[in-house]
Amino acid sequence: MLRWLLVTLLALVLINGLWPWLKRLGLGRLPGDFEFRLFGREWFIPLASTLLLSLLAAAIARWI
Questions:
Q1: Which of 34, 36, 38, 46 is most buried, by CB atoms within 10 Å?
Q2: Could you tell me the pTM of the whole model?
């Protein structure tokens, strides 16, 4: 369990660091990505980008 927690934390740190570069590629602006303002704060729910990155990660894992 600790290993999965560590892997998830590292993946989130990696994606957070690469987010400006990924946004230039068009992730975060796909049709299923929602951005809205609620209670004076911007909320971002990247459903389509998450699905696309998951499919890419699964394809790479299957290929390796």
A1: 46
A2: 0.65
Spatial distance between the Cα atoms of 14 and 40, rounded to a whole number of angstroms: 28
At 10-57, the pLDDT tens digits run 877 887 788 788 888 888 888 988 888 999 988 888 888 888 888 988
Nearest to 15 by CA among 7, 59, 31: 7
Q: Residues 6, 15, 39, 47: what is their CA dihedral angle, to the nearest 10 degrees?
A: -100
Q: Which residues of 27-62 are buried (b: 16+ CB within 10 A; e: fewer)?
A: beeeeebeeeeeeeeeeeebebbeebeeeeeeeeee
